[in-house]
Design brief:
Structural class: alpha+beta
Number of strands: 5
Distance between the termini: 16 Å
Radius of gyration: 14 Å
Shape: globular
Number of helices: 7
Strand content: 15-25%
Helix content: 40-55%
Number of domains: 1
Order of helices and strands: HEEEEHHHHHHE
Strand order of the largest sheet: 1-2-3-4-5
Largest sheet: 5 strands, mixed
Length: about 140
Amino acid sequence: MYLRLPPRIKVLEALGAIADGRVSVVGEGRCEVMSSEGDKTYTVVVGGGYAYSDDNGTIHRGYVGYPIIACLMAEGKLPVDKELAEKLRGIPWKRLNERYKRYEEVLHHIYAERVIEKGRAEAYIAEVLREVEKMRLRFRKQV
């Protein structure tokens, strides 16, 4: 099964994980990504057109979850906007998602609170999603 493109906010969530130092590359195409709350560590394996992550978005919703995107960023396979990353440092993603219930509302809050220029952020998100789409990743159960 091919993984779908994620909600746009997941690109920023992945970039925030990079900024926070929550992504550990443990081998080629293998990462561990700690959640924003620090209570979970996701296992990611990416390579050969396949991807695995044990996050909810990947497992239950069938899209490329933010841990996969973060791993690809950490390995230099997806672009990283360092200036934008700094503005995403320390965001409590889970709490905001639970509070606002809608990703668009969370984005609006983050852009306003962190003084992020929406056009620039949206262009970056679009660039990353284009690259992810080209990869056409298929879900592989962890072995």
